[in-house]
Amino acid sequence: MIPIQNLYYLLCYAWNRLPSQGEWQHLEASTFHRPLELLTHMLLAGTRRLLQQGLPLGYAEHEEELTELRGRVLLAPTLSRDLLRQGRAVCAYDDLGPNTPFNRLLAGTLEVLGRTRHLSAALRQEVRRLRARFPEELVAAPFTRHELRAVRRLRLPGQEGFLLNICDLIYRTALPDTDTEGRTRFHDFRRDETLMAGIFERFVRNFYRLEQRRYRVLSETISWQAEAERPEDLGLLPSMITDTSLESAERKIILDTKYYAAALKPHYDRQRLIAPHLYQLFAYLQNQAPRAGQQLEGVLLYPAAAHEAYLRYTLGGFPMRVVTIDLNQPWPGIAADLLGLVA
To answer: Same structural domain for residues 65 and 171?
Structure first.
């Protein structure tokens, strides 16, 4: 199980944000027993910064009965209520204020956290105090998948995007509490291999983007070196998209991350590498077209759990490694191991 402090680093890099030294010092001085406590701390710290800078404002449409015309007159409700004879009309107008979709979602997330019993009473109180600092006219949005998707489509940058990622992960770990109306219980997402696989992949890719300058880092689509009698048949081939490609003039590394409990699995009375993982990476290498003078190699990277591994092969003329990284060690060791992997 990844320690909470290391989980903080994984999330920061996965969301393309360098870890904050101040937050790290607070983490070292605190004891978090559940990932939800960590996420709440990160949400509180980020929201405080946002409030200090001033909540982002946006235009929201209002609909109201008015004695003076403003914006657009909505004829259907105006006529159905017989308002014209009263010198009134229903108008729709845009008003600049804090009721943006993001601000409303943030407030809704804080309200859910302020009620859950999965946080200590002191932390819930801290959440409620921060929620009370929002403008009174700001209406919290329901904490639902629909609201999250609507805000996701806005492609928010910077601090807002980072806070949205936290809200999204909190939602993905939330389950309705059938015993208590209006409350939510949360599960430990470190046990969710599918969710953690995505976090681990983005963590590794963004770590290399932010922490080294030798390689250009990207996720790329590799074209099949294939021919077909009918050109349209080529479109039926599955996509080949790398998790992480690191490229310099003289070297290209295709690094595939696999969030599995072990790099080896039992096969009869022996341990074996996981065949589909090896086949996938080999297919990437076979269909890649390196530049002149560029060495092409592959790496399969697993988090260390049951077994540690550092295996070297040459397959089809390509150097290939199968490596595990210990995510339970102190963070400086993790960073050093990742940099050493591509040195």
So the answer is: no
